[in-house]
Write a structure and sequence with these properties.
By secondary structure, this protein is α/β, with parallel strands linked by helices. The chain has 15 helices and 14 strands.
Length: 379
């Protein structure tokens, strides 16, 4: 983990992913303990993480030297010399690549962005998520070791905790059918776009076009378009050119915001989520929206049968899907919810099939290492 001042578990999905993986590893029969290694400067997890309840400890690299047999580098960059020491002592090191690996290499160079450049030949295996299968050969070449796909996992535990917080202020997280809404007479949906706008893999450009396409076809389909994570780009000439070309902006039905968590924003300002990705089709924000029964208009092939799907960059079809959702979501809500529930079962960190697959990866990683196999692993 990379701890830092003012940290929040909602800052990005990677922090949550670490916790979910730790919980999963605690279920592997031959794993005797799991600890979190702090690569930052706080020595503590974000306030939303109850370490005692999770049965986890956090410690520095130095303190972890004699505590772990398997090191999984995931959300913070470990010191290369320490990694070399651990491998020299017979420990195993895994680089768990969760971000889109090609973009992580290309964008810092092309856009002169800051990045963390790590020595590639520092791990025994690379683990990647199914969304990045196309990049497996690239990962094998760069890191000079084998690379394997591991399950994408997610749990609603942090979402539920946040929903409980907002409930104490009188708000309920979850889609409200029009007939049950206090604003039942309101025409059209309030749409939220949560793309982070810090990489080409997840930006608001196509979702804005989707909303405008729906709005052009039917002025009553969209009441307001909320573009989040946009304050740092709202005055960029290209963004101004795009935004000012849209009917939904010209008629003052668009608002640009900073960063907000999905629960706090949806309960007050939005009814639906429109998203877009490019080579990054497994995202926690999709599952967060689906868990609240909110209509999700998306282009993720992974969720082709869940939510309202449009292919690739097809903003016209996206607009059609948004209008279709606005017209039918209330009546189709039970089936929509059932499809989402089936999806949640597949990504549950504690589900047997996911625990079993990670156990198999650990077994393969530690093959031929008799001391680890005999004593049980500490990750």
């Amino acid at each position: 983990m990379l701890t830092h001042a003012s940290q929040n578990i909602w800052s990005n999905g990677l922090g949550q992913n670490v916790i979910f993986l730790a919980q999963l590893l605690q279920r592997v029969p031959f794993v005797t303990s799991v600890v979190l290694i702090d690569c930052g400067d706080q020595g503590a997890m974000p306030p939303q993480v109850d370490m005692g309840d999770l049965g986890l400890r956090i410690m520095s690299m130095r303190d972890a030297t004699d505590e772990v047999d398997v090191v999984i580098e995931m959300a913070g960059a470990l010191d290369s010399k320490w990694i070399d020491l651990m491998r020299a002592r017979g420990r195993k090191v895994v680089f768990h690549c969760c971000g889109q690996p090609f973009v992580a290499l290309a964008e810092p160079v092309v856009f002169n962005k800051q990045s963390t450049a790590l020595r590639p030949d520092r791990c025994d295996e690379v683990w990647y998520l199914p969304k990045d299968e196309a990049f497996a050969p690239m990962l094998r070449t760069i890191h000079r070791c084998d690379a394997h796909a591991v399950p994408f996992i997610w749990s609603p535990q942090f979402l539920e905790a946040r929903a409980k917080e907002v409930a104490e202020t009188g708000y309920r997280y979850g889609y409200v059918p029009r007939e049950a809404s206090p604003d039942a007479a309101r025409s059209g949906w309030r749409v939220a776009i949560f793309e982070p706008n810090i990489s080409v893999v997840k930006t608001s450009s196509i979702p804005m076009l989707v909303c405008d396409e729906a709005y052009r076809a039917d002025r009553d389909s969209v009441q307001m378009m909320h573009v989040l994570n946009a304050l740092h780009i709202k005055d960029h000439p290209t963004m101004l050119y795009l935004a000012n070309s849209l009917d939904i902006v010209k008629t003052h039905r668009a608002t640009f915001h900073g960063r907000h968590d999905i629960v706090g924003f949806m309960v007050q300002f939005a009814d639906a989520v429109v998203s877009h990705q490019w080579g990054n089709n497994q995202n926690y924000s999709y599952l967060d929206a689906l868990y609240g029964d909110y209509p999700l208009i998306h282009n993720s092939p992974w969720l082709k049968d869940v939510g309202y799907y449009y292919p690739d960059f097809d903003a016209q079809e996206g607009g059609a899907q948004l209008r279709r959702a606005e017209q039918t979501h209330d009546t189709e809500l039970p089936a929509y919810r059932a499809r989402a529930q089936r999806l949640f079962q597949t990504v549950d960190p504690l589900a047997h099939h996911n625990v079993e697959q990670y156990a198999a990866r650990l077994t393969h990683l530690c093959r031929g290492t008799s001391n680890l196999a005999a004593t049980g692993g500490r990750a």
